[in-house]
Amino acid sequence: MIADLEAATLAELIAAAKEASKRAYSPYSRFRVGAAILTAQGAIHSGCNVENASYGLTVCAERNAVFRAVAHGSLSIRAVVVYTPTPTPTAPCGACRQVINEFGPAARVLCVCDGPDRLDTTMAALLPDAFGPMNLGR
């Protein structure tokens, strides 16, 4: 599915997600996640998970990357790459799916890991019948 992206762009997204994971602040879970967002304008924004002693205040890598893109003026997401240092890929959590849907209901999502497997999907598959701006007439 992610084949509609140029190989160089895809490689850049994967590298950005992996690099972001190195900056994760995860002293509680030790689960270092990185994400990279490709906006409709072609910009790449990355983010990492940032944990907190009050665990509910933790922010996932995917949301961090989305918020960074929005802070830079991008309101349309074309693709998301999530990297986890695991043997199998890990999909975004429910909260991240909802946030990604807000800005990229048609976005491609690629989850990569240290193993050979990849999860290559879409927001529509990850969050079927999603609630979002389209339900509010936007």
Percent range for helical residues? Answer: 25-40%
Adjacency order of strands in the biggest sheet: 2-1-3-4-5
* Strand/helix succession: HEEHEHEEH
Rg, Cα atoms, Å: 14 Å
The helix tally amounts to 4
Can you tell me the number of structural domains? 1
Q: So, CATH architecture? A: 3-Layer(aba) Sandwich
Structural class: alpha+beta
Distance between the termini: 27 Å
The percentage of residues in β strands lies in 15-25%
Average of the residue pLDDT scores: 95
The main pleated sheet reads as: 5 strands, mixed
State the fourth-level CATH superfamily.
Answer: Cytidine Deaminase, domain 2
CATH topology: Cytidine Deaminase, domain 2
**Uncertain runs:** none
For the secondary structure, the number of strands is: 5
- CATH class annotation: Alpha Beta
Choose one word for the global shape: globular
Description:
The chain has 138 residues and is of the alpha+beta class. It has a single domain (2-136), classed as Cytidine Deaminase, domain 2. It is 29% helix and 20% strand. The protein contains 4 helices and 5 strands, in the order αββαβαββα.
Q: How is this fold's topology laid out?
A:
Blueprint: H1 7-21, E1 34-39, E2 44-48, H2 61-71, E3 77-83, H3 94-103, E4 108-112, E5 119-122, H4 123-126
Parallel strand pairs: 3-4
Antiparallel strand pairs: 1-2, 1-3, 4-5
